[in-house]
Amino acid sequence: MFDKQARLTSALALFSLFAIGSSVAQHPGVDPTKPLPVSEPRPSAATVEAWKARRFGMFIHFGLYSELGGVWNGKPVDNGYSEQIMANAPIPRDQYAALAQHFDPEKFDADAIVALAKAAGMKFIVITAKHHDGFAMFDTKQSSYNIVQATPYHRDVVKELSDACARGGLKFGVYFSTIDWHAPTGSPYLDGNSNPISDAHAAFNAAQLKELLTNYGPLSEIWFDMGKPTPDQSKLFAQTVHRLQPQTMVSGRVFNYEGDFTVMGDNEVPKFAIDEPWQTPASIFGETWGFRSWQQRGDLQTKIDEKILELVTVVSRGGNYILNIGPASDGSVVPFEADVLRGLGTWLKTNGEAVFGTHGAPPEASPFRSLDFGYATVSNDALYLFVKDIPADGKLHLSGVLPGVHFKQPYVLGIGRRVTDSVRLDSDALIVSANPLLKNVSAGFLPVIVLPFEGKLAVRSATTVSPAPDGTLTLDATKADRFLNYNGLGYEAPATLYKLRWWTSPTPGRYTAELRYTKSLQPGIIDLVLGTRHYAIPTEAGQGEAIWSSEVTLPRNTQSLQLTPKEPFLKGTVLPVKVEALTLHPIR
Predict the structure, then answer these.
(1) Angle value at C-alpha 254, between 248 and 257, nearest 5 degrees
(2) Phi, psi at residue 179, to the nearest 5°?
(3) How many CB atoms lie within 10 A of CB 369?
C-alpha cells in the first residue's frame, strides 16, 4: 500500500510540474505562498488591517487572584505567576472559592482605566473575563461562580469596562481561558497548563462565549489562552465567535491553527518573519501578570525606557504590542504601573507618528533587520529612524536602499529643526549624519529622526544572495528567511517550519534547479516559487539525502525564491522534508 501511494504521489507531482500557475488561477487574489485559514468564516481583510493598525493596547489581568496579591498563608508564593496562585501555592478548591466572599473591588473605575489607556497612547483594552481559576468577571448565567453573584461587589466589571471603552473611543476585547480549575467539568492543574478539555467543558465554554458575544457590545478580539483543545474544540470556539461577531479577531491560543492572529510567547518577539498578523503580550514585570503585593518594582524611568524599547522593537518588526497591568484587590491601578503607562504616553505624544500608521519595512521585504543604531519603520512618504545608540562615526548606515527615491531634509520628531546636507544615498547605502541632527537636542530616550521622501522606497535585503561569476545561484537553507507555524497543538507545542525564502536578483532565463534535502518517512510535494512561476517538486521517502533536479525558468524582475508546501495549503502544514540547499545553474 505504501509503495503504491508513493508512486501515485510522485506521478501527480510530475504532472503538476508542467501545470505552472494553475492553482494560482484557481484562487485569484490569494498569495499561494501564504497559508489559508483552517476553517471559515473569517474576519474581512479590512478588519484585519484595522486590527494591525492599532499597534498598542492595554492588557488587564484582574480577578479573584488579585485578592491574595501573591501571598498565601502569610507567605509569598514565588513559583510562577501570581494569577495562577491557586495552582502554585497550591490552594484547595473550596478555600480558593471562599475568597469571593471578601472580594470587593470598590475602587475599580472603568472610565479612569480608559483615560489611563488613552494617556498611554493605547488604542484598545483587553480584560480577563475568565482566567484559569474559572472565576468569571462578568455576569454569566452558566455558573454562580462570578463577580456579580458570588461577591459583595455585585457589579459586572467586564460590562462596565466595555461601556467605558465605547464612551472613550477605544476598542474592547476579552481574555478567555479555556481551562477551569473550579468547574466540575474542568480538570485540575497540569504542568504547562496543557489541560485536555472535556466535551462537556467545551460546551460550557461555548455557552459563556455566546454570552460575551451577545451582551457586551462589539468585541475587537477574544484572547483565548491555555489548555490543549482538540482540533474540533478549537474549531467550535473560533466558529462560535465568528458566527456571532464575524469581525472579532480570535487569538492564536485558541490553538490548532484556528486563530486570526499569531500570539507570541509571553514577552517574546519573533526572530523570523511572520506571514500573518501577530501580537506580543507583555507584562510590566516578567515575574507576574496578576497583582503581586511584594513585587520589586525598581526605577521608574528605567522601566519606562524598557517598555518603550519593547514597543518599538515589536512595531518595527510588524507586530502589535499589548502591555499588561494588574490592578490591586480593591480594583485600583498600582501607581507605579500607571506611571509607567503615562511615561510611554509622554514619549508617544512626541513620537507616535513613527509608531502608528507605519509598518516594519516595505511590504515586499524586511530590509532593516539589524541596525547598529536602533530600529526603523516606514510610512508611505517617510522613513523613521529610532536612535538607540549613535555609532562612533556619528552616522547612521542603512544598507540596501536603492536609487529612485528622493530624500528631503531630515528632522527630529518633536523638534522640527531641519538640517541640510545630513543625508546622502551612497551606492546602495543610505547614510544619515546623526550628530548635527541630535546635537544639543533634548529629545529624551530613543529620539526619532524623520526622513521624508518622494518616490518609491526600494530596499535590497541584507540577506540578498548574489549569483557566482558564472551565474550559478546557491541558496543555503541556513541563510533563508524561515516562516513558522505558531499556536498549534497546544501552548507547549513547538513552532514548525512551512516556508523558506531567499532574496536575490538573478538574471532571467532558463536554469537547471537542484534541490538537496533529507528524506522523510512519507513522500510529499514541495512548491518551488520563482517569481510568478510555480513548480511542484516530488520528495522521496526513506533515509539519507536526495536530490531533485529539473529545468526551470526564472521570470524577469524575480526578487525572491521560495519553497512552500504544495499550494494552496492550510495553516499548520509543514515542509515535508528538511531542505539543505537549492542551487540554480544557468543553461547557456
Answers:
(1) 95
(2) -100, 165
(3) 18
Share of the chain above pLDDT 70, in %: 93
Cα(255)–Cα(231) distance, integer angstroms: 8
Check: CB of residue 494 under 8 Å from CB of residue 508.
no
Q: Residue 120 class from Cβ within 10 Å (0-12 exposed, 13-18 middle, 19+ buried)?
A: buried
User: How far is Cα 196 from Cα 313, in angstroms, rounded to an integer?
Assistant: 35
Three-state secondary structure string covering 169-206: CCEEEEEEECCCCCCCCCCCCCHHHCCCCCHHHHHHHH
Q: Which of 569, 566, 563, 565 lies closest to 581, judged by CA?
A: 563
Instruction: Give the position of cell 484585519.
Output: 48
Residue type, 410: P
**Beta-bridge partner residues of 139:** none
- Phi and psi at residue 178, in whole multiples of 5°? -85, -10
Q: For residue 321, which of 332, 329, 312 has the smallest C-alpha distance? A: 312
Whether 238 contacts 259, CB under 8 Å: yes
- Which DSSP symbol is given to 73? T
Question: d(Cα 405, Cα 396) in Å, to the nearest integer?
Answer: 18
Amino acid symbol at 105:
P
At 76, the amino acid letter reads P
Please write the tens of the pLDDT for every residue from 33-81. 999 999 999 999 999 999 999 999 999 999 999 999 999 999 999 999 9
CA gap 411, 83 in Å, rounded: 45
Cα–Cα distance for residue pair 404/240, rounded to 1 Å: 49
**What CA–CA distance (Å, rounded) separates 267 from 565?**
30
Residue 294 has pLDDT above 70, yes or no: yes
Peptide bond preceding 196 in cis form (omega within 30 of 0) = no
Cβ contacts of 479 within 8 Å, gap of 6 or more: 463, 465, 502
pTM of the predicted model over 0.70: yes
DSSP letter assigned to residue 247: T
Over residues 170-183, the pLDDT tens digits come to 999 999 999 999 98
Cβ neighbours of residue 345 under 8 Å, at least 6 residues apart? 119, 120, 121
Which residues neighbour 433 within 8 Å (Cβ) at sequence distance 6 or greater?
394, 395, 396, 419, 421, 422, 423
Please, where are the H alpha helices in 230-370? 231-244, 300-316, 335-351
Backbone angles phi, psi at 382, to 5 degrees: -155, 145
Contact 249, 174 (CB under 8 A): no
The sign one gets for the Cα dihedral 114, 120, 121, 123 is negative
What is the identity of the amino acid at 486? Y
